[in-house]
Amino acid sequence: MSIPSEFQGVTAVTKANVYFDGRVVSHTLLFPDGSKKTLGLIYPGTYHFGTDKAERMEIVAGSCTVKLDGSNATQSYAAGTIFDVPAKSGFDISVESGIAEYICSFIG
C-alpha cells in the first residue's frame, strides 16, 4: 500500500487541531463517504495520545518512534511506513529531530 500524496473531493476543516502548545498540529478532512482523516505535523518531542476509535497512522515525511499502550517495545517508523493503534487505547510518539508529517485515518 502506498501513502497518498493528495486527496480529491474532500472538505477541509479550516480550524486546526492544536496539541501540546503547538508542537502537534493537524487539520481534519471529511470524505463524501462519511469517513474522516487528519493531516498533521509533529515537532520534536515525546507526546501521548489516547484513541477512541482505532487509528491508522501513515508517515508522510520525517520519522518517529512509537510505543503502543500496554507494550514495552518501541518501533521506529520512517516516511512511507504505517502503524495501527487499537480503539480505546493510546500511544507515545517521539520525534527526535525535524518534523514528522502524518495522515491519521480513523478506522474503527
Descriptive overview:
The strands form two sheets. Strands 1, 2, 3, 4, 6, 9 and 11 form a seven-stranded antiparallel sheet that branches. The protein has a four-stranded antiparallel sheet with strand order 5-10-7-8, with no helix packed on it. It is built from no helices and eleven strands. The mean pLDDT is 96. It is globular. It is 0% helix and 55% strand. 16% of the residues are buried. It has a single domain, classed as Sandwich (Jelly Rolls), CATH 2.60.120.10.
Overview features:
108 residues, mainly beta, Jelly Rolls, four-stranded antiparallel beta sheet
E-strand count = 11
For CATH, the homologous superfamily is named as Jelly Rolls
Structural class: mainly beta
The gross shape turns out to be globular
Number of structural domains: 1
Instruction: Estimate the strand proportion.
Output: over 45%
Largest sheet: 7 strands, antiparallel
Report the end-to-end length measured between terminal Cα atoms: 19 Å
CATH topology: Jelly Rolls
Provide a count of the helices.
0
